[in-house]
TrEMBL record:
It comes from Linnemannia gamsii. Pfam families: Cu-oxidase, Cu-oxidase_2, Cu-oxidase_3. Residues 30-145, 152-292, 358-491 form the Plastocyanin-like domain. This is Laccase. Keywords: Copper, Membrane, Metal-binding, Oxidoreductase, Signal, Transmembrane, Transmembrane helix. It comes from the Eukaryota. The chain crosses the membrane at residues 545-566. InterPro entries: Cu-oxidase-like_N (IPR011707), Cu-oxidase_2nd (IPR001117), Cu-oxidase_C (IPR011706), Cu-oxidase_fam (IPR045087), Cu_oxidase_CS (IPR033138), Cu_oxidase_Cu_BS (IPR002355), Cupredoxin (IPR008972), CuRO_2_Fet3-like (IPR044130). The keyword Transmembrane helix applies. Belongs to the multicopper oxidase family. Residues 1-21 form the signal peptide.
């Protein structure tokens, strides 16, 4: 059984009778569990305290969340609270080798997280593919003064499910025998890591449904038979109430919707999460593509017939408006990152940003930042293969994410919500001013989908000193290296950020250095840094290809297209073996 979280009330003085903050403590032993969540296959999964699924975490604004982790699995692990800003608290963010050494088997780590925001989040393993094996749970933060009124709430966490463990799948995926980079295809979809979830509705009441996509790969389209959905929250940001029939949700994104219960109990209704087959290379006949939950008005009532829904177009940034406006400020710095998949000189199909595939450093990047003195502002100390981007304190930054790949990718920035300020087709080559489509209170979120062969511009202020991972949230693509490391305001970290001594002991236990540059050396000597595979010798870089594309296109359009595709086939095997035509 789960031990109930322990709440300690600490009254914050006498100034405000209403304001109070609790320390909410969860004791989480991370353990293996044998179970059969999709009813198709018994297997070993990663759970909490011998139970599966892991319990949701439920706290209130201004609480302090404490999670006492004991690692009882046979691999080092970590936890990341997805979407939390962790201001001044970077060491609790969790990505392995970015902000901490992973917790060795048998060791303990206490995550202490002051809760300064509210909304719908989730917490998941951030070492290897641990969340694919089940180490993921909703993290719900209540606000005593919610923006919208509702009577009750439920959380629906959608996830995809595999029958093999992540390590087996990863070996097959990152293999010379998988030159097209076809991702492992899940076997089923689950809601709250179970089948047949039911949600009781009482006539006339208003329900808040918190929808979380905890998938490794799949994208789902959500709809509810017989009911409209009013979107009110996106990734922790309250938005103007907007009615929709259906909406898509990519890995790691969250939406809250308000649903008004019917006045009668004559029918029950299905909630649908339909996987988008576009995400998959091949769709096996056995795949349980569509998952449903049931809204129960009266257990004795029949199910209403299913509605056919046209998924249609859904542009989150065009449709949804934050309740609390935030104007944009023109960027001080524009960074262009082009994502593509390429067979590298290790003959394995890897994911790259600007031709660099991410490889973890020897020293967690945060520990490099706090131990290198004034050299911490020099990107070189973080190593070549962490793909470091150093930002000045309080500067405004645009990242133009170019998706030069046949698949769609949801990109996530730790430590921030960003504004979605632009979208365009193809790779932005800088020859014309960037087509910002909205700089008046644009949508803010922490995970944005960038469709195939398009670009999206995100904007944020570098006001959160720390090391923040920026990566694709399709777990397989992160493992294939689709990540960069943002080192934000290194000159302002000292005195603001601390590192707990016990965390450093975990590095020692694992034989890893915890100070110095990415190689564990002093100064700019990077001898011995972890190096990744590089582009095959003589191959065009993706930037080069883009240049070629634009040049020849303007010359002889027809011929150029043929050259482009010929080059593409030869040089840049498209993801999932899909044609980009
Ligand atoms: C949370 O803390 C902030 C700052 O101390 C305070 O202004 C606010 O009223 C508190 N909110 C709640 C719900 O306690
Ligand atoms: C965690 O494991 C330890 C050691 O086996 C055990 O003593 C403790 O009761 C477990 N805690 C929970 C919450 O299950
Ligand atoms: C979550 O916390 C809120 C506020 O403390 C409480 O009302 C609610 O019952 C809790 N929900 C669960 C599922 O524990
Ligand atoms: C880890 O925490 C558990 C439970 O609190 C405790 O029994 C154990 O002694 C701790 N282990 C270490 C290595 O500190
Ligand atoms: C979750 O995201 C993945 C990847 O973007 C997507 O394929 C899947 O359908 C999404 N699931 C839901 C319930 O929307
Ligand atoms: C339920 O009945 C009330 C009162 O007759 C009406 O105002 C409301 O629109 C009805 N709600 C729905 C969902 O039909
Ligand atoms: C899943 O649902 C979609 C409609 O949303 C439908 O087109 C498709 O055929 C369904 N797939 C299966 C396997 O039932
Ligand atoms: C800009 O975004 C806001 C908020 O999403 C919206 O209200 C406004 O209509 C948008 N303006 C344009 C020009 O798209
Ligand atoms: C860094 O600090 C050292 C000694 O404190 C000083 O000699 C050096 O000039 C500084 N370098 C820069 C780039 O500020
Ligand atoms: Cu991706």
């Amino acid at each position: 059984m789960f031990t109930t979280p322990i709440k300690t009330l600490a009254l914050l003085g006498l100034a405000s009778a209403a304001a109070h903050a609790a320390v909410v403590t969860y004791n989480w032993n991370i353990t293996y569990v044998n179970t059969n969540p999709d009813g198709l296959m018994d297997r070993r999964v990663i759970g909490i305290n011998g139970q599966f699924p892991p319990p949701a975490i439920n706290v209130t604004l201004n609480d302090t969340l404490v999670i006492n982790v004991v690692n009882q699995i046979s691999e080092p692990t970590t936890l990341h609270a997805h979407g939390l800003f962790q201001t001044g608290n970077n060491q609790m963010d969790g990505p392995s080798m970015v902000t901490q050494c992973p917790i060795p088997p048998g060791a303990n780590f206490t995550y202490t997280i002051p809760i300064k925001q509210y909304g719908t989040y989730w917490i998941h393993g951030h070492n290897k593919g641990h969340y694919v094996d089940g180490l993921r749970a909703p993290l719900i933060i209540h606000n005593p003064a919610e923006t919208y009124h509702y009577d009750e709430e439920y959380t629906l966490a959608f996830s995809d499910w595999y029958h093999d463990e992540h390590a087996v799948l990863l070996d097959e995926y990152l293999s010379i025998f998988n030159p097209t980079g076809a991702e492992p295809v899940p076997k089923s979809a689950l809601i709250n890591q179970m089948l047949n979830t039911q949600f009781l509705f009482v006539p006339g009441k208003v329900y808040r449904l918190r929808i979380i996509n905890m998938s490794a790969l799949a994208m789902f389209h959500i709809h509810i038979d017989g009911h409209d959905m009013d979107i009110i929250e996106v990734d922790g940001v309250d938005v103007q109430r907007t009615t929709v029939k259906t909406f898509p949700i990519s890995a790691a994104q969250r939406y809250s919707i308000l649903v008004t219960a019917k006045n009668t109990t004559t029918n029950n209704f299905l909630i649908h999460g339909d996987m988008d087959p576009e995400m998959f290379d091949t769709v096996p006949d056995t795949l349980q593509m569509n998952i449903t939950g049931t809204i129960i008005y009266d257990a004795a009532s029949p199910l209403a017939s299913e509605e056919l829904i046209d998924w249609g177009e859904f542009d989150d940034a065009a449709l949804l408006t934050p309740v609390v406006p935030m104007a944009t400020t023109p960027a001080d710095k524009q960074i262009s990152l082009t994502a593509s998949f390429q067979v590298m000189d290790d003959h394995i199909n890897k994911a790259t940003f600007n031709d660099i595939t991410y490889v973890a450093p020897k020293v967690p990047t945060l520990y490099t930042a706090v131990s290198m003195g004034n050299l911490s502002s020099d990107p070189q100390v973080y190593g070549t293969y962490t793909h470091p981007l150093v930002l000045k304190h309080n500067s405004w930054v645009d990242i133009i994410i170019n998706n030069n790949d046949a698949g769609n990718h949801p990109f996530h920035l730790h430590g921030h919500v960003f504004q979605v300020v632009g979208r365009g087709d193809g790779v932005y080559d800088g020859s014309t001013p960037y087509p910002y489509f909205n700089t008046t209170n644009p949508l803010r979120r922490d995970t944005v989908l960038v469709p195939s062969l398009t670009n999206v511009a995100i904007r944020f202020q570098a006001n959160n000193p720390g090391v923040w991972f920026f990566h694709c949230h399709i777990e397989w693509h992160l493992q294939a290296g689709l990540a960069t490391t943002i080192i934000e305001a290194p000159e302002s970290m000292s005195g603001v950020l601390t590192v707990d001594q016990t965390h450093l002991e975990h590095c020692t236990d694992l034989g890893l250095p915890f100070s110095g540059n990415a190689a564990g050396n002093q100064g700019l000597d990077l001898t011995g840094q972890n190096i990744g595979p590089n582009l095959l010798p003589g191959k065009f870089t993706s930037k080069g290809i883009v240049a070629l594309f634009f040049t020849v296109l303007s010359a002889v359009a027809g011929l150029a297209t043929i050259i482009w595709y010929a080059q593409d086939d030869e040089l840049v095997p498209s993801e999932e073996g899909k044609e980009t035509k």
